Amino acid sequence: MDYTAPPPETTRPARRSGGREGSSLWLMYAILLLFALVILFSFWIIISVSLTSTAELRYGFRILPPRFSLEAYQYTFANMKGIWNAYGVSAVYALLGTLLAVAVMSAFAYALSRPRFQARRGLTFYVFFTMLFSGGLTPSYILIKQYLKLYDTIWVLILPGLVNCWHVMMLRTTMQSLPSSLYDSARIDGASEYRVFVSVALPLSAPALATVAFMGLLGRWNDWYTPMIYITKNSLFPIQYLLQRMLNNIQEAMNMIEFSPFASSVDVSKLPRENLRMAMMVITIFPMMLVFPLFQRFFIRGITVGSMKG
Amino acid sequence: MKKTILRKVVSTLLATAMVMALAAIPAFASAQEEPTTIIQYNFGSETFIKNTGIGVEAVNELLLEYGIKLDLRLLSESEYVERMNLIINSNEYFDICFTSTWRLDFYQNVGKGAFLDLTDLIPEYAPKITEFIKPEYLAFGNVNGRLYAIPNLQILANPYGLYLRKDVADELGIDMTAIKTLDDLDPVFELIKSERPDLYPMGGGLDDRVWGSGDTVISFYGAIAEDDPDLNVVSYYTRPMYLNTNEYNLHLYNEGYIRPDIASVTTDQSQGDMVAGLYAGAFGDVKPGGEVEFKNRRGWDAYQIKISDAMMGYNSGAATMNAVSINTASPDKVMKYLELIHTDGKTLDALLYGTEGRDHVITPEGAVRIAENSPYFLGNTAWAFGNTFLLTVMEGQDPTLAERTEAVNDAAKRSPIVGFALNTEPIQSELAQLDALREEYKNRVYMPNYEELEAEYLSKVQLAGLDKVLAEMQAQVDAWAIANGKK
Questions:
Q1: Interface contact A253-B382, CB threshold 8 A
Q2: Are B90 and A141 within 8 A, CB to CB?
Q3: What is the pLDDT of residues A116-157, one digit of tens each?
Q4: What is the dihedral of CA B230, B231, B237, B238, to 10 degrees?
């Protein structure tokens, strides 16, 4: 007998058999296609505007730049000596932070998923409680700055955000839903608890781990709030925060002149405008666009993983 | 054996010498008296301050004489409030910070007990401040008759008017001296419209806050009518200054003197479009040196025309002040420093322009020229630091700017309740609702169904608790008037 999987065709509903089902499918595709187009169009406009010169912008946004110009990119790179350094900080923040976070969270989730674990209920409540209630900004600030002494170090980006309770819950549910016979058989083969975790629980939760890792990576890459509160050294600015500051600075340059009782010597007319914003957007999202396809195959399976049982 | 003894002796001697040497250093230093470090928070933009660490040397050299060392910490402007609130709430140590009515709320922080009462410290440690800042202006830093911050002198009352591009005005032969009131503008706009169809005469509508009137507007919603001796607080929406402004902007819009898509144009975009040459002019505050500023900011030589007189609002002097932290360890040194930046031009120059020769040079006319690629320059935020009238002017500025600005301040009509401060706490939720409505309906004048929207807005404002707000304002104004002998 042949035990390979049955040919998938047999499991699919016969195509175009029912007219109603077919047309609703096409409608669905049309809606999705439209949705995709809306998103693609926005992306296209962002890229197009980022390649338009400031002078041309007065005529509004165009599908194609009237004249191709790298002005905004030149301005960005010329005015930000720290941009490569910031990319580096972002990479460390996002990669190291995510790696550590996934390691800590998966171990935590594994412990919570084992029914024999004594403190399981207490710890689950502890996690759940912090999902609902938070201490607020000021106490966190006091703790981090005055007691943990993490202020203005790279660790403030990595350590306090290591455990995302929502992600822990997601991983726990996944690990709980693995057949217990797998754990039992590993145990019978003489595997220690660590061995079971590393060789059974982790590989089988790969889709969930990838999902959590990707969300963590994206969240860390895009985070500008944590560095705003806790980082003052220019050498520790991640890219998002650096760009955020630069945009504000241009706005500030304008405000400053507005409020100044004396005339200013700064020529605001030379400062790039929307094109700069768009160029910065392209600069920051670019690395994430490269990373996304790597995760995608896990991601599609993983997103629903928390809700599945059995 | 001998060698080891010798070695021991030598090493003991050396060790003793070292200990003595080390001990001698602090003794020597304490004789010099270590300067007291003052931590000052303010905001600044990286566009101007490329490296703050090295800049304060210049002012520190001058401060050494008074045993003061300044540690100036500049926060990005957009983050100032958030970071400063964290610093204050977590009881972190600092000495001085910027505070105002619009950024890092002064009254709220005084209420919190964050700032030191300076009333009795001034005569003791900074007596010269009262010589340079008139009691009337110093009182802007008062809460319930006690002084909690030192206001930075600058322009306190802006006359309102408009700017018109020189090239357009000259080409069309417009007589600028003939323009005295808003009514004189219509023929000018009509001329621009017919002769220069490529331009919109104005970049935007009139600002309703500063439209020619002697009313005192309290926090957008209340108003005390001009020359009302009883200080009755009435709804701002019933005042001619509001009604006329709306009517006038509608007129501008209907006549095509402003662009038809004005409702969707952001301030940012409007500024850029002015630079790009889409408009012949713009309404705005007029002031000494205003043309130079317009040229720098909007890129065009322009005439400025005054339409309404200057009016000093009840809290306009509280727009930029410096307060002292309640935690300060050395109020004497802090007050001395504040006295210097409010009374001594040399100290202020050093603080804002950095080291002469490296950060700036003095031109033969005595003005400051910023060195190219200077690592240090705070001149554009002079108004956030100290008495701007003492500052050496920058190249291209009118050397008499300070006197002219001071003259405008002194001549300005005063609100009858100058020095009053509104405590918004009891009406916080009403004000939040009103603010949201104001934002939602802000472009109603430029909508096709304006009249309908206006009626809708006014009825919603009533529902949001306008009357309660007005009653609270009235109660506070009355209490203030009695306390200050105005009633």
A1: no
A2: yes
A3: 888 999 999 998 888 888 878 889 999 999 999 999 999 999
A4: 10
CA B58 to chain centre: 25
Average pLDDT over residues B95-105: 93
CB contact under 8 A, A264 and B370: no
Choose from B88, B275, B377 for mutation: most chain A CBs within 10 A. B275
Length of chain B as a residue count:
487
Residues paired with residue B304 on neighbouring β-strands, in sequence order: B163
CATH for A194: 1.10.3720.10
> End-to-end distance of chain A based on CA atoms, in angstroms?
28
The total number of structural domains in chain A stands at 2
Instruction: Report the alpha-carbon distance of residue B87 to residue B39 in Å, rounded.
Output: 12
ipTM of the complex in this document: 0.71
| A260-288 pLDDT per residue, tens | 444 344 455 556 667 887 888 888 888 88
The C-alpha of A228 sits at a distance from chain B's nearest C-alpha, in angstroms, of 8
> Do A37 and A117 belong to one domain?
no
Q: Are A50 and A183 in a shared domain?
A: no
Specify burial of residue A68 (Cβ count, 10 A radius: 0-12, 13-18, 19+).
exposed
> Is residue A85 located within the same domain as residue A191?
yes
CATH class of domain segment(s) B35-155+316-353: alpha beta
User: CATH top-level class for B160-219+235-312?
Assistant: alpha beta
Report percent pLDDT > 70 for chain B: 88
| Tens-digit pLDDT profile for residues B26-67 | 444 444 578 999 999 998 755 444 444 556 888 999 999 999
pLDDT, one tens digit per residue, over B183-220 is 889 999 999 999 998 889 998 888 765 555 678 888 88
B149 SS3 class: strand
